[in-house]
């Protein structure tokens, strides 16, 4: 039973990794909008795996390492591929090398976080997490038609250095799961709705499965916490 419980959060982490891999394939095939949406779905899955592991009390070193490997693909490599095609492809080999800096900085940031995880506070991160950096970069590429190209280039450079900086970034880990999940759900829902309405393309089929499941999960946690509060009052 313990093995099965431990496999649940790992399944979410591996699904996150799959989203990153599929995003790269979509981008390579010229479908940048779906590639970006897959990164956003990866963010949704990434927000769940750690909390599920803590809820089931199955945190492990393997889970942490697996999460880092998934993050470097979904929020490091995939956004870098997107920004390369959108902004840096015209520069040839130089553009490839510059785009490659993003996963390099992201990998360094993850390695530093992993070795200092036991010393870190739950209230803040040191440096911008790769998940946030990759998500911001992806959103910028998705609204590429509305902003100057220089904005993406400047943001790309800034995010690279912010990831390895010592700046304290507030953590959302201390926010109760229902509130945190609601924030993420509404945010991603609005972004995906805008993308869908402005330039319709066929979405990856599992987006219709992933988002309802995520909303159902958050709803379940909300109702569970509500019942626990009522039991304490009684």
Description:
It catalyses: a CDP-1,2-diacyl-sn-glycerol + L-serine = a 1,2-diacyl-sn-glycero-3-phospho-L-serine + CMP + H(+). InterPro entries: CDP-alcohol_PTase-I, CDP-diaglyc--ser_O-PTrfase, CDP-OH_P_trans, CDP-OH_PTrfase_TM_dom, CDP_ALCOHOL_P_TRANSF_CS. It is found in: Endomembrane system. The chain is 77% helix and 3% strand. It has 234 residues and is mostly helical. The chain has a single domain (2-177), classed as CDP-alcohol phosphotransferase transmembrane (TM) domain (Four Helix Bundle (Hemerythrin (Met), subunit A), Up-down Bundle), CATH 1.20.120.1760. A two-stranded antiparallel ribbon has the order 1-2. It is globular and about 55 Å long.
By CATH, the superfamily comes out as CDP-alcohol phosphotransferase transmembrane (TM) domain
Question: In what range is the share of β-strand residues?
Answer: under 5%
Roughly what is the average pLDDT, rounded to an integer? 79
Could you say what the CATH topology is called?
Four Helix Bundle (Hemerythrin (Met), subunit A)
The main pleated sheet reads as:
2 strands, antiparallel
CATH-scheme architecture: Up-down Bundle
Query: Radius of gyration from the CA trace?
Result: 18 Å
The secondary structure category is mainly alpha
List how many beta strands DSSP finds: 2
- Give the number of domains: 1
How far apart are the termini?
A: 33 Å
Uncertain spans, ≥5 residues at pLDDT below 50? none
- The CATH C-level class name: Mainly Alpha
